[in-house]
Amino acid sequence: MPYERLKTAILKHVPFSDEEAATFCNAFQPQRYKPKEYLLRAGEICRFEGFVAQGCLRVFALDARGGEHVLYFAPEDWWVTDLDSFTNQQPSWLFVQALEPSTVLQITKADKDRLYAALPATEKLFRIMGQKTLVALQRRMLSALSQTADARYLAFVGKYPALAQRLTQQQVAAYLGITHEFLSKIRRRLGQKK
Amino acid sequence: MPYERLKTAILKHVPFSDEEAATFCNAFQPQRYKPKEYLLRAGEICRFEGFVAQGCLRVFALDARGGEHVLYFAPEDWWVTDLDSFTNQQPSWLFVQALEPSTVLQITKADKDRLYAALPATEKLFRIMGQKTLVALQRRMLSALSQTADARYLAFVGKYPALAQRLTQQQVAAYLGITHEFLSKIRRRLGQKK
DNA sequence: GGCAACCATTGAACTAGTTCACCAAGTGCC
DNA sequence: GGCACTTGGTGAACTAGTTCAATGGTTGCC
Asked: Which residues contact B4 (CB under 8 A, 6 or more apart)?
């Protein structure tokens, strides 16, 4: 049951009763995606906020020359949306794509607004989750400003070893902000055979 | 009156009555800082969340070799804290320093928690402000991943022209993730005399 | 009013990371 | 079972950005 993961995840932050948790979870619709399938493309309006029950997605942007740059990966238990496009219902500049066969529990903007009204603790839930995301992104920003690609790569595999295994090197490179050729050279230098 | 700026700022996001707004604002204490004065140093626990009523601060980190890297600047109407250290009351890895003579309205963790309890809309207020900060940081992260230093510099002065005037080039460079020497060369190349 | 900091600029030598072209191995598809 | 496609690796030439050292101009301080 994909809803169990969602229930467990939210109860970590907010003390919902069983009924409240059910009200919360029932506002989400499960959707399955095949590898390479897009949930959102730049120019579209993001109609969902999703909780990944299974699989792995990526959120990325294209630069002027067609290069892909990964904002984040979303494996199981992560949330995925274009926050700006979703909250303001305006055109996105991001792509959201499944990397593996994935199941995502999705909520619409209207249903999320209903949740805020029906269960006030929802405010706190998303405030806290947003704060954690912000702290993590601040760390990554500082890492981008201050560390060399070698150090960023080591930090990434150190922090997310299981995820690093699931991703191709191209995806990892697009997250680190380097070319996959250079990542290959870093790995050789570090003697990483894995 | 420094509280007027704070009141105006919060009423943009949340419909407080005059009494509620007063309750909110009175939880904050004004503090004045001289240029170069530190509000927080790495290793300390961040005891405040602040609203800048006047002046300008910077939040930065040191790398292994002593280089400074700016996470963000906080001029008038911006909020400033080490979110991680403040919310979890654990040692910080950041520095917060005044760049100009500044007045900051500050709240402690305990008083902020009291606000959350006394005025539930406070949850919404900080959820929304957090979301906006997150969206802005996502944009900056993608810019760091995908753009050259020239483009990032132009984007910065384009987005924050007044702020760029107030800062030294060293500060701007530490925000862009380049050396101030290289920033100087970029500016020459662009023919910027300002 | 003079000295000490700090700031912006510049040039030369260097290094981290890119680009392009190519090759080998795996994987999935029909 | 074969073919197309994607992936990972490698080398050579290149470029964006760093490092170091030096200079001159402001600014602020006592």
From this structure: none
